[in-house]
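Here is an idea for our session: we take a single protein and study its fold together. Start from the sequence, derive the backbone structure tokens from it, and show both lines together. Once you have written the record down, we can walk along the chain together:
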Amino acid sequence: MRRKEREITGFETMTAILERCDCCRLGLVDDGYSYIVPLNFGLSVDSGALTLYFHCAGEGKKLDLIRQNSVVTFEADSLHELVRGENACAFSFRYASVMGRGTVRIAATVEEKTAGLTALMAHYAPDFVPVFSEKQLRAVTVLVLEVSEWSCKANL
């Protein structure tokens, strides 16, 4: 990281910044090119390991690309604020961002789908207790991203 003074290294602080983000961009590879898709997400932390969850339909380009190559990258950002300056070069921007990589897979069990969807709901509506019917669970695909490496940077 070039701007070491902006690097955030504390796991709890990094997680708190990620929790403030409302969109996570998943980076996939499409015939040698980047394919980036913005997604709603949920997260869980277990013994210092970060897992991200996404939901999607049961077919489409994103799933086709994941089946070809499950190694992905991700990025999320928040706390955006323009800082005005006296001239153009004195302007700045406040932000906090996380980015990383890992391996994504399709949730294999009903329990895993339920855990992923519950994490999504907890991220956006923490006061709501979700219940999912069998029909709903059959209709949705849940992606599980096991994060192997991530970093955080902020200009606050």
